Amino acid sequence: MTDGVRPATQPATGTELAGFTIGVTADRRRDELATLLERRGARVVLAPALRIVPLADDTDLREATRACLDRPPDVLVANTGIGMRGWLEAAEGWGLAEPLRGALGQAYVVARGSRARAAIRAAGLRHHWSPATESSAEVVEHLRRRGVAGQVVAVQLHGDRQPEWTEALQEAGATVVEVPVYRWAPPADPAPLHRLVDLVAGRLVDAVTFTSAPAAEALLRAAGDRTETVLAAFRGDVLAGCVGAVTAEPLVRRGVPVSAPSRARLGALVRTIVDELPRRTTTVRAAGHLLTLRGHAAVVDGELRPLAPAPMAVLRALARVPGKVLSRTTLLRTLPRGADEHAVEMAVARLRAGLRAPTVVQTVVKRGYRLRVD
């Protein structure tokens, strides 16, 4: 693997995403998501934006556990499956697993998503309610309507604290016990994430997937002084695919249009991308051939033709104005900085060879090049 790019694999279920490059920012489930995308023909760039690490010092977790034993909570909010399992495993190590299950068994249990529900069931606890949107805001609103005055609410945190939700419950009269089980940390190797930022800024990927809101924030932090360039790419050529509305929130807040399934599941996210990306392609007819432009390839009369970035950039520029002559100077602006007019000629030559349809791109003497549409 080079720069986080997974080697191409033979699609097992289809080629709907053949010719597209998709960035994956997930860590824990990156291989699962990458495989789902590759099975549909995509080229995947792995770039974990964050990683989940257990608490190095479990003092806070142990104190929160003791607080739940001393005064069993009236309400338990289970945010994540990995967090609930980690909490109970830690309690097992302290010899407190059974007392903790007994204390939590008396609570009204809110599970924010399907994995949290599964962890609750596996622990032998009863699940009472889940939000349709899987959002913390909906959980807080539900509990406020139900009434929490004078009650103890234990909230299993999912990474960083969310003081706005804790304060909202406290204002409603609850005593909130925050249960920290893990925290978000930067990736062990930040190079793939910075490489993905380069690709997004250069509009050399077609989509980036996000499975958590902190991951979206982390990618924008990694962009640094290029944040606005990255946001502009997401508002234009690069699709932001989010597993759900909660994950999408940091991007939506910055004016980025996102694609997200109604149910926050990896399979549903992949189906959303499969539906969306092909709609964003450009199709033109030139020199008797039908060309559809994908991220790093052109489909010529139904056959995929992978292309390097420079020839692809030239083809995109020509396809935007079929039949119109573009000068070498104009085409030069589409190539990486430092290129000269000779690089344009080389890109055109590679484009013709890659398309295997040499008459598609026509040289107009002393003027430039055009797509031949006559």
TrEMBL record:
Pfam families: HEM4, Trans_reg_C. Keywords: DNA-binding. Residues 281-373 bind DNA. Residues 281-373 form the OmpR/PhoB-type domain. CDD domains: HemD. Gene3D superfamilies: 3.40.50.10090, Winged helix-like DNA-binding domain superfamily/Winged helix DNA-binding domain. It comes from the Bacteria. SMART domains: Trans_reg_C. GO terms for biological process: phosphorelay signal transduction system; regulation of DNA-templated transcription; uroporphyrinogen III biosynthetic process. PANTHER family: BLR5956 PROTEIN. NCBIfam families: PRK07239.1. This is Uroporphyrinogen-III synthase. It comes from Micromonospora siamensis. The lineage of its organism: Bacteria, Bacillati, Actinomycetota, Actinomycetes, Micromonosporales.
